[in-house]
Amino acid sequence: MHLLRSNGLNNLCSAYVFASIFLTMKKYNLFKVLTILLMFSLFQMPVNAQTKSSLYPDSRLDIRYHSEWTKKHYPERIAAFMAKPLPPGAIVFIGNSITEGGGDWNARFGIKNIWNRGISGDVTDGVLARLGEIIHSKPKAIFLLIGINDISNLYYEKQIPSTDYIAANILKITVEIHQKSPATKIYLQTVLPTNRVFTKQEVDAVNAVLRAKNAKGAFILIDLYAAFADEKGLLKKEFTNDGIHLTAAGYDRWVAVVKPYMSSL
Fold first, then answer.
1. What would the DSSP string read from start to end of 129-177?
2. I want to staple 189 with a disulfide (CB 3.0 to 4.6 A). Which of 44, 56, 145, 260 is the partner?
C-alpha cells in the first residue's frame, strides 16, 4: 500500500504550524517534533489507491503463446482498457476474438453495465496476465470464454504442452478471481466447437475437465458447446462463416443461452 501521497500544500502547512506550536510549548524537543510530522504524513495525508499502471500488463510483456499478430493487438487492447477502466460492480465478458467480436454487449442484452474485455488472439496465459483490473474492480459477474487459441497453438505450433495445461489455466483464472473477489459471480463457459475435425478431440478433452470440476469449482458452468454443436460435435454451419468465429445468428444464440443467467443478476 502506498501511504505517502501528497495532497497539495495544505497538509504540509498544517503539519508545519502544528509542529511550530509544539516546538514553542516543549522547548524545541526535536524527537517529538519529528514524531508529530511523521504522524501527519501517515494519517492526515490520504491513502494512495493502487496505481493504475499496476492493474494492467506492461506494454512490453511478452505472452509466450501469442501469435505475432496478437503480440501487437494485445497491448493495443490493454491501452484501450486503461483509457476506460472498469467501474466497480460491472458485468464483464472476458475472452478472445469471439468475445471481442460481440462488440457492444449492452445492446445485445438490452441492459447497461456490461463491459467487453475480449482480446482477439488471446490465450489463457494472456487472460491470467490481465486479471489485475478485473479483481481490483470487484465485478458483479464475469462471463469467461477462453481456450480455442490455446488449442490451435497446441495443434499447429505445438508450443502449449497439453489440453490438461489449457484446462488447468482456465480453472486457475476462476480460482484467482474467486479468491480475490469472492462476491463476484463467475460464469465459466465451455469452449465452443469448431468445424475442424482435427481439433475436436482437444476441445472435448478441455471441456471434459471443466465439466468434471463444475461441482467443486467456485463457478457456474454454462455449456455453450452443447448449444452450438451439431450431431457430429462440430460448430453448426448457421452459426459461423469460417468454422470458428460467429455470425449474427451465432451471437443471437449465445445471448439466448446466457440470458437466463444474466436475468438472475
1. HTHHHHHHH--SEEEEE--HHHHHHHHTT--S--HHHHHHHHHHHHHHH
2. 145
For residue 256, the SS3 value is helix
- Measured CA to CA, the distance from residue 136 to residue 54 in angstroms comes to 10
> Whole-angstrom Cα distance, residue 190 to residue 169?
13
DSSP structure string for 48-89: BPPPGGGGS--TT---TT--HHHHHHHHHHHHHHHHSPPPTT
pLDDT in the model for residue 84: 97
Report the percent of the chain where pLDDT is more than 90: 78
- In this structure, what C-alpha cell is assigned to residue 4? 505517502
Tell me which residue has cell 453495465.
113
In the predicted model, what is the mean pLDDT of residues 245-256? 98
Instruction: Give first-to-last CA distance, the chain, whole Å.
Output: 32
Grid coordinates 517534533 are at which residue?
33
- Are the C-beta atoms of 26 and 32 separated by less than 8 Å? yes
CA-to-CA distance for 73 and 141, rounded, in angstroms?
A: 26
Residue 123's contacts (CB-CB under 8 Å, 6 or more residues apart) are 63, 65, 66, 96, 146, 149, 150, 153, 160
Q: Are 243 and 195 in contact (CB under 8 A)?
A: yes
